[in-house]
């Protein structure tokens, strides 16, 4: 099957590539890191909103363009190429998808237009341990009159340090590990009893730990059906995994391009190192891995927009492949650059650091290989 962008999708891709290259280059990430901004840039957020990027997955009646995940994938790949630290994935993909797929009419009316306009940033607070585990929710949601009281903690919430609205998974029934009994709640950052601890991360994008000490939420803040939160989380996580795979693909491609340029300019023993057969073989391996990853990602993006029944398995395939590819390419980028690749002055180390985070977010390669096998009956 051939995946070809439409004219409108190609225009969006070109715009996203130019924006990332001109406004959010790798030097911009260095500036954010060195200034202690922890990945927060209000100006970049404003420009993303002006370009309409936050509203790509939001229906037109709520201020978005409803352009589809294929379009969003082009934007995230572009941002991955320059390691751009933006809240687009958490807000424009996860927040928009959660509300579009599971929100009530009142919740959609209240939040989607604000998300599309860049006025509200969201973050999904799901995991509580060192590894991605959607069913391992221990945070409690105790029924309290006309609402619930949330008590517990969430660990490493991407963009949680700058979120205005959290989508928090809590257990309303059962024990950690049970797929039934998880509910989702919309909780503003200023809710009484909610504490946000900002984290300085190795990739300079930032995250947060959350503590919930008797946070009260009304019934109107319940997102989707009580006890059936995992039924909503799963399709949202599919979209998140695909989106993260797009970003990882962009980072891997940029690291490969950087490496290829170095092989064609650096000389040793009077010869370009790109003329050495051993390095040519390694570069060819990276090229083939990138091409296979691009095919997997394209298939997953198309499946979402076409509402295919293979979204979950293609999401896991894309995320597993992208995680392995960005790991391999970022390693080879550092190694083939030699001594300079080990210095902070060179960008290769930044790509390696971001790659390690991209791998882990929303499930690493082993998580998604196992999930892919289970979805196919193994």
Any overview of this molecule?
This protein is α+β, with helices and mostly antiparallel strands and 378 residues long. It has three domains: 7-120, Acyl-CoA dehydrogenase/oxidase, N-terminal domain (Butyryl-Coa Dehydrogenase, subunit A, domain 1); 123-227, Butyryl-CoA Dehydrogenase, subunit A, domain 2, CATH 2.40.110.10; 230-375, Butyryl-CoA Dehydrogenase, subunit A, domain 3 (Up-down Bundle), CATH 1.20.140.10. The protein contains eleven helices and ten strands. The strands form three sheets. The chain has a four-stranded mixed beta sheet with strand order 1-4-5-8, covered by helices on one side. A four-stranded antiparallel beta sheet has the order 2-3-7-6, with no helix packed on it. The model has no long low-confidence stretch (mean pLDDT 97).
Helix and strand arrangement:
Layout: H1 7-23, H2 26-35, H3 42-50, H4 69-81, H5 88-102, H6 105-116, E1 122-125, E2 140-144, E3 147-158, E4 165-171, E5 182-188, E6 194-199, E7 207-218, E8 222-223, H7 229-263, E9 267-268, E10 271-272, H8 277-305, H9 311-336, H10 348-360, H11 365-375
Parallel strand pairs: 1-4
Antiparallel strand pairs: 2-3, 3-7, 4-5, 5-8, 6-7, 9-10
